[in-house]
Amino acid sequence: MANVKLVLLVLLLCSIFNYNEACPSECQCSEASEITCDSIDALPSSSELFDSHSQITSVSILNSRSITEIPADYFNDLAMLTTITLSDNGLTTLNLSSFKYLPKLSSIDLSDNPIDCNTDIAWLNTWLAASDGNQVTGLCSSGESVSDYLGTPDAANLLKFTFKQENFEIQEASEVLKIIVERDKDFNNDVRAKVVSELHGVTDEQFQVLNKLLTIKRDYNREDIRIQIQDDDIVNLEERKVKLTLVPESLTALGKSAALVILDDEVSSTPHGGVSANTTSTPKDDDEPGGSAVWIIIVIIIIIIVVVAVVAVILWTKKSKAQSSTTPAGQQAAYSAVQGEGDKKVYNATTEEIA
């Protein structure tokens, strides 16, 4: 028992050591998913700070007057991040491009920064309108509070991603299926969102999103999520559910979720609700029930048509020859071609029939 406790203690110490080893030396990283960088000369690179801490919930960068801006893409793809504290630095502005794919961010603290309150930070008003729980604190360099400068949150510029349908029943299939995603506004640039799936009772191998990064082009207002569901050949009576969530790239866009229920082919014949099959999907086997019978019927019909056509041509040809031989010109031609007694008999017989 003592040996087991010793092993567990060693593993715990190693995990703590490795966790702190991945943290930049000028910062502190806790196992409670918090990172604090206090009184630093320069920002650590985004990869250095976050690559080993993708599940962090809080980031604090404090008391560093040499930090005057946050680089583009710095806070990127941190799914659990809720709080960013940037107090007592030298920030004069805050760019939207610094924040991407942050679905749970709800608090930005800009206290004690010489923020220039102008149109460069107007995007924060749209972000505040995305959720009642979003908040930004701090003062402008003029002494006015940032929230007062931004005014009442206005959703006029808030982009919304929506599903064409929010609830789906999908049967197991080998085809690539498409779920339609729309946006509610026209923009002069492409907009992007990530597709995040939560699986319940279904494996990653059976349910696959083929295009997890969705881009809606500037000239279009819709795009398709392509999914593939493999039939596991097992009869499943219990519902298997998938939650699809759109996580926008921009903080000024709002995502949406849709619920999918996967039905077993052997249990229900419900058609794809709001889901269309891709025309380039994998062809079905020839021995699928009903498939080969259709082809056999088609082949039989073609053969019958060909036979009827051939018989019709033969009958028409015989009739034409018979009519040709009963005319005077035909008689003369037959007579000129007659050679020998046997042929003459044929001619005489023809002459008698005409008479």
Give keywords.
6-stranded mixed beta sheet; 7 helices; 19 strands; Immunoglobulin-like; alpha/beta; Leucine-rich repeat, LRR (right-handed beta-alpha superhelix); 2 domains
Can you characterise this structure?
The chain is built from seven helices and 19 strands. The protein has helices at 2-21, 46-50, 123-130, 146-150, 291-325, 328-336, 340-354; strands at 27-30, 34-38, 58-62, 75-76, 83-85, 99-100, 107-109, 135-137, 159-163, 167-171, 176-183, 191-200, 207-209, 213-216, 222-229, 240-248, 253-254, 257-263, 275-277. Strand 2 (34-38), helix 2 (46-50) and strand 3 form a beta-alpha-beta unit. The protein has two domains: 16-156, Leucine-rich repeat, LRR (right-handed beta-alpha superhelix), CATH 3.80.10; 159-277, Immunoglobulins (Immunoglobulin-like, Sandwich), CATH 2.60.40. By secondary structure, it is an alpha/beta fold. It has a six-stranded mixed sheet with strand order 1-2-3-5-7-8, with no helix packed on it. Residues 4-20, 268-274, 277-290 and 329-355 have low confidence and may be disordered.
Compute the gyration radius: what is it? Answer: 39 Å
* Helical coverage, percent range: 25-40%
The assigned CATH architecture of the largest domain is Alpha-Beta Horseshoe
- Major sheet summary line: 6 strands, mixed
CATH C-level class of the largest domain: Alpha Beta
- The count of domains is 2
Alpha plus pi helix count: 7
Looking at this structure, what is the CATH superfamily of the largest domain? Answer: Ribonuclease Inhibitor
List segments where confidence is low: pLDDT < 50 over at least 5 consecutive residues. Answer: 4-20, 268-274, 277-290, 329-355
Assembly category: single chain
Mean pLDDT: 80
Largest beta sheet: what is the strand line-up? 1-2-3-5-7-8
Strand/helix succession: HEEHEEEEEHEHEEEEEEEEEEEHHH
CATH topology of the largest domain: Leucine-rich repeat, LRR (right-handed beta-alpha superhelix)
- % residues in beta strands: 25-35%
Structural class: alpha/beta
Compute the number of strand runs. Answer: 19
Distance between the termini: 129 Å
Shape: elongated
